[in-house]
Specification:
single chain; four-stranded antiparallel sheet; three-stranded antiparallel sheet; alpha+beta; globular
């Protein structure tokens, strides 16, 4: 990884037992992914501890939204990053701190420093996943807290009755 990029903590995937990568090409497929952002550091909102403990009682819904929302300049930085890599903005929402983007797998790979691959579970279910760690340019370090949608492994498997 280049020194002008930072890793998104917790983004390294561990293969599950019995999963295998398939030789199928996925570069021309389009994906929609969600980029998660930090809370506005200037928002003056509650601490993470207060939020998790339930001690935070906002005076109104609007006050809570303002305290927990993303900084508009962070959203602008992510928008610029996405456009730089040829990704299309699908949706952005400051209150939920997310930006959804869409683009070809090849552009997403360049943007996030991963390799997207087709894989198969032990049960034969096929899905897309990635290898490597998700990274973003240093300018987005600390701003981007997660990237959802590059790993499409089934999260739960129904049990036979």
């Amino acid at each position: 990884m280049s020194s002008d990029r930072v890793v998104i903590p917790g983004s390294e995937l561990k293969p599950r037992e019995g999963e295998r990568f398939l030789p199928a090409a996925v570069n021309s497929q389009n994906l929609t992914i969600t980029i998660l952002l930090r809370r506005n550091p200037k928002g003056g909102g509650p601490s993470e501890e207060d939020l998790l403990s339930g001690r935070y009682r906002p005076p109104s819904r609007e006050a809570a939204e303002a305290a927990l929302a993303a900084d508009p300049s962070d959203i602008a930085a992510v928008r610029s990053f996405a456009e730089q890599y040829g990704l299309r903005i699908v949706d952005e929402d400051a209150s939920s701190r997310r930006v959804r983007v869409q683009g070809p797998v090849s552009d997403l790979e360049r943007a996030f420093g991963v390799q997207v691959k087709q894989a198969e579970s032990p049960s034969g279910k096929q899905f897309m996943t990635y290898s490597g760690v998700i990274s973003v340019p240093k300018a987005l370090g600390g701003i981007v807290t997660g990237v959802l949608g590059l790993d499409q492994r089934p999260a739960a498997v129904p049990h036979a009755q």
